[in-house]
């Protein structure tokens, strides 16, 4: 069975429009239990189903995919935030059990990690300088671009990287 990535998006759009599954069933002709299965990703969607849902929800098919991607990104970011918070909570639960010397060691280690992180970030241009292409930029200049976004990048850093990439694409399109 093919993976159904659009179910949660269909549910979110349906609820955003104030529709029940029964209402959506009346609009689409798709049985209410099938809509439930689609939304819960228990049943795959074919191209016709996707078009029917898009029409009933007054969006383009591509909008459904774009929203699904945005939701997946947001969910991944939330998982990362939750994992980070779990680690922080764990550290806080351990600290009171340590003696003063060991607490100091933890503090020194964390400070060194932060310093290393800042030093590493100095190796690349700050995001603020990447977002706005400069007038003197030429396409003949060599350019270094990371091939991935690190797992520990913040949502703001990820967005800055994506915005920079969109700006680069606009510049390339202007040149052509």
From TrEMBL:
InterPro entries: Cro/C1-type_HTH, Lambda_DNA-bd_dom_sf
HTH cro/C1-type domain segment(s): 10-64
One Pfam family recorded for the sequence: HTH_3
Any GO MF annotation of the entry: DNA binding
Protein name: HTH cro/C1-type domain-containing protein
Organism listed in the record: Lacticaseibacillus sharpeae JCM 1186 = DSM 20505
Taxonomic lineage of the native organism: Bacteria, Bacillati, Bacillota, Bacilli, Lactobacillales
């Amino acid at each position: 069975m093919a993976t159904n990535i659009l179910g949660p998006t269909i549910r979110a759009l349906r609820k955003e429009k104030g529709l029940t599954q029964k209402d959506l069933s009346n609009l689409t002709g798709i049985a209410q239990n099938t809509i439930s299965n689609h939304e819960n990703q228990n049943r795959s969607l074919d191209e016709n189903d996707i078009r029917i849902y898009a029409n009933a929800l007054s969006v383009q098919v591509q909008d459904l995919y774009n929203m699904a991607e945005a939701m997946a990104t947001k969910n991944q970011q939330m998982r990362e935030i939750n994992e980070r918070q779990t680690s922080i909570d764990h550290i806080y639960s351990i600290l009171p059990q340590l003696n003063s010397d060991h607490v100091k060691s933890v503090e020194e280690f964390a400070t060194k990690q932060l310093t290393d992180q800042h030093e590493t970030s100095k190796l690349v241009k700050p995001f603020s300088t990447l977002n706005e292409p400069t007038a003197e930029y030429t396409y003949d200049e060599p350019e270094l671009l990371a091939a991935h976004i690190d797992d520990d990048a913040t949502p703001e850093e990820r967005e800055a990287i994506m915005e920079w990439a969109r700006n680069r694409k606009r510049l390339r399109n202007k040149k052509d």
